[in-house]
Amino acid sequence: MQIHGPAHVHGPHQVNAPHQTQTSRPPQSISDVQTVDQLDISEAGQALSKARDVSEIRHERVAELRAKIADGSYETGQRLEQAVERLLDEIV
User: Fold this and answer.
1) Mean pLDDT of 51-64
2) Which of 5, 35, 63, 74 could bond to 69 as cystine, CB 3.0-4.6 Å?
3) Taking the CB of residue 68, how many other CB atoms lie within 10 A of it?
């Protein structure tokens, strides 16, 4: 319902109000439509792409580290201290 002053009241009507006029016409063919496509890749997406381009995984090194972790010889006090220091450097 639209109210325009005390003497001019419209009753209920469709969503497209009766006073609207269509000034634009739909395109008649594909050549009438002009669009521009654009692709923006975020920094995270670019970093992921670079990470995927890194050389092959060194499976021997991964196996070596997994074995050290499994037998408990990898996690030493020195490595833990170094990891904490690096984390604090990143935070501060």
Assistant:
1) 83
2) 74
3) 13
What domain count does the chain have? Answer: 1
Is residue 70 within 8 Å of residue 63, measured between CB atoms? no
**How many angstroms separate the CA atoms of 71 and 40, rounded?**
47
Whether residue 32 is contained in a domain is answered as no
Residue with tokens 């009753």: 11
Give the per-residue pLDDT at 7: 62
The pTM is what? Answer: 0.32
Residues 10 and 1 sit within 8 Å (Cβ to Cβ): yes
CA dihedral in degrees (52, 55, 56, 58; nearest 10)? -120
Residue 52 maps to a domain = no
